[in-house]
């Protein structure tokens, strides 16, 4: 939701545009599978009609980060929901897992971020996993995908990664155990000479 923001045009951002399921941002490929999360939060949305859906979704992400062992994040309310699906932004504003550092910069610089922000936000991959039926990729990035820590950065640097083709026909990296994976956009962080030192910094200090 927030990842569609464009600082130059002041468009996109956390406006709950994905709640329109027939068209708009909910149909964008990078959002595949998020209908499950939206469904889990719908009872809370229904219970608090005076709170914007965008605020509820954002608060849920804060709670999820904290309960998984991450930092406490100050929460600021006041996000405004889109009214109709036509207010969705165009597809293509979110990161493409098959691309590299230049693409990541295009996506995140548009939001007013820098290389350190890109690496830090990529660290969210320490949680969860890829699902083949949604993204076309399969597997977790870390050995404890429900724990918020810096294992993602350590794994990037310390494990041996081999590019392979998964059962869906898509290329992803696999570690020496065959249990963990990385996307091309993950590997870009250690292939880029400016981003790699930031990865090393985060790996060394949780």
TrEMBL record:
Biased composition regions of type Polar residues, renumbered to the chain: 1-12
PROSITE patterns the UniProt entry points to: PEROXIDASE_1 (PS00435), PEROXIDASE_4 (PS50873)
Domain called Plant heme peroxidase family profile: residue spans: 1-206
InterPro entries, per the entry: Ccp1-like, Haem_peroxidase, Haem_peroxidase_sf, Peroxidase_I, Peroxidases_heam-ligand_BS
Region listing for Disordered, in residue ranges: 1-28
Keyword Oxidoreductase: yes
Protein name (Swiss-Prot/TrEMBL): Plant heme peroxidase family profile domain-containing protein
Organism: Eutreptiella gymnastica
